[in-house]
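FAQ

Q: What does a record look like?
A: Structure on top, sequence underneath. For example:
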């Protein structure tokens, strides 16, 4: 395991002081919808879809009363649109009927919403309520955690997000849980990319044991 976890965090925080969620939204429920749409889809694509979607359906009540076929058409390009539309409609129904139209602010309550798993709930809780229930684990976090040897390589290869989250929660203090994913995501998009990582430009190269990266220098 990598003994430089603190140095890794500090270097990345210095390199990306303004790192934050890349999804655009104007209210709590819009963020939830954007996160649901981001599954198996880039944030860039989601941000191209949501202006028209949110103009038509600006809040939970609007989605609750929406025609699901219209929602499907508006989100079609994000992929898996049938399931995503069903999740959005289901989440809106639960928020309106169970939570009086107000998005809940605890992990336990968020997980009762259709289409909301732990990853989505973590994003919502950190972004909207600054609550650290866990670490959001996406593809960038999985890749960097493995390359940096923060988690066993087999765990990274099998993309075991739940197991990776538990290890990262043990490694890093709770006040870093919300920030860490953003740092890994920014670094993963800009430097430590999946196919051709830019090791010569990496601020944490000296802490990286991965031999996979050496041929990109």
């Amino acid at each position: 395991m990598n003994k430089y976890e603190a140095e890794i965090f500090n270097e990345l925080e210095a390199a990306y002081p303004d790192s934050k969620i890349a999804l655009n939204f104007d209210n709590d429920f819009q963020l939830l919808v954007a996160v649901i749409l981001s599954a198996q889809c880039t944030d860039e694509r989601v941000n191209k879809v949501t202006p028209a979607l949110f103009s038509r359906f600006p809040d939970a009540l609007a989605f609750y009363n929406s025609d699901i076929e219209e929602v499907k058409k508006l989100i079609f390009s994000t992929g898996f649109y049938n399931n995503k539309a069903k999740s959005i409609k289901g989440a809106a129904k639960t928020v309106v009927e169970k939570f009086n139209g107000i998005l809940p602010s605890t992990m336990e309550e968020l997980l009762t919403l259709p289409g909301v798993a732990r990853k989505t709930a973590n994003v919502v809780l950190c972004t909207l309520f600054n609550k650290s229930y866990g670490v959001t684990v996406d593809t960038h976090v999985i890749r960097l955690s493995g390359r940096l040897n923060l988690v066993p390589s087999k765990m990274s290869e099998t993309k075991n997000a739940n197991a990776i989250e538990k290890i990262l929660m043990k490694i890093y203090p709770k006040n870093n849980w919300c920030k860490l994913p953003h740092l890994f995501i920014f670094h993963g998009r800009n430097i430590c990319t999946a196919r051709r990582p830019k090791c010569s430009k990496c601020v944490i190269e000296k802490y990286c044991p991965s031999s996979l990266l050496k041929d990109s220098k």
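Q: Is there anything notable about this one?
A: The chain has two domains: 5-18+135-216, 28-129.
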